[in-house]
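Troubleshooting log. The previous structure file for this entry was overwritten by mistake, so regenerating from the original sequence record. Sequence copied from the archived sheet and checked twice against the printout by T.R.
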Amino acid sequence: MYILYTHIEEIKGVNTMKLRKNIKIGIIIILSVVIVSILYIFLTLPKISFYHNIEQVEINQEYDALSYIQKVRNCDIEDVKIDTSNVNINQLGEYVIQYMVDDEQYDLTLKVVDTQAPKLSVKNGDVEVNSQVDVNQFVDKVEDATQTKVYFKEDYKFDKEEKKKIVVVAEDEAGNKTEEELEINVIKDNEKPTLSGLKDLTVTKGGKIDYLKNVSAKDNFDKNPTIEVDDSQVDLSKTGTYTVTYKVKDKSGNENQYQKKVSVIEKKSVSEVKQSKNKIVYLTFDDGPSENTKKILDILDKYNVKATFFVTGNGQKYNQYIKLAYQKGHTIGLHTYSHNYKTVYQSTDAYFNDLDKIGNMVKKEIGFVPKYIRFPGGSSNAVSRKYCRGIMTKLTTMVQEKGYQYYDWNVSSGDADGNNIAVKTIVKESTSSKANNIMLLVHDTKAKSTTVQALPQIIEHYQALGYTFKAIDDTSYTPHHHVNN
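Regenerated output below.
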């Protein structure tokens, strides 16, 4: 028994030792597996990790692609190369930012979003009963980073006269919405449309007229009122004054009527009235009226001489002197309204529009539109070439075809060379001619006081030589310069 027990104990000891050994081996294997796994995981971890799988940025806003990186392993963040060429920050959508490090690429999705609702401002207004209403007529302004659409919140009816509250909605591409309420008046349209740009017309016999040139219609509801022209009373083959009737009508049937005069005149050729044998001085003042006009008129009265004033629209607070000069027997001519080269010489239409303005201004003072004109800078000016090549060649013909006559000069006082030129210089230049007919250019502006002072000497010089001073009329000498443009 003893031997058997001892043998059993020995067997137990051996088994325990084997068990312990096996446990150690198992532990070593497990630890090895764990270590290898940890090492594998560590070695296979991405070198770049991000805070989120998808980042968002507001449309049109700046972003920092580097800030999306949470961690960089085994290298410095400066080593990371970033490609954002596929990102359009101005367009909604999902884009990919590419990150490169050690030839390994990592992609991050960047979503461009719009979370801001449009800014919408509206305005009250009127609509016509039973009309098709455009929501945009009530929209003052819409602002958003993306395209927007504007619409009524409901299908409103405008079938009776009333004050009505409506809601306008502005919605952007991302579906953000802004609503604004306003009040409109639904009313019946009883207001007549109007025409603007109408004027009396002049045409040469046998010519053509564009009755609707520069004419426009306006209505409170109808954007395109119809215009009819009745020229049945006009005979373009015969000189005379006729009446043309304009009718303008809106979609509600409201109608307005206007009448204008059409003057059909003989076509005139461009020609000059030659020098006569009589000794005549035509004293012509450009650029007035001004604060000096009354002083000039007093001097002319003193010497009992007549003159011509080519006026502009630049001194209208002195316009009463235009009427006074006319009443005293002086001639009023036109020198354009603005006297601005850039304005009047842009085109022939621009010139005649400006000429019409000064003509209408003068008509209010003396009752008619003068037909005697002077071009700013004269017909020989070359400055007009800067604004329209060849315009003076056209204008010198067109003005006479329209019934005007233009006057240059054959003697200049020299007062256009500056302000307050010395009196003796003005006198010397003004009295330098011995021609039979003298068209003398002087100026009437605030800055030409020495011209006023020189007038008595100029008048006395020519009167002593037997000259008569006359205002321009249809028989007057018409010097025409050589046209340089």
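The helical segments are 2-44, 293-303, 320-327, 341-344, 348-366, 391-401, 423-430, 449-464. Archived copy saved in two places this time.
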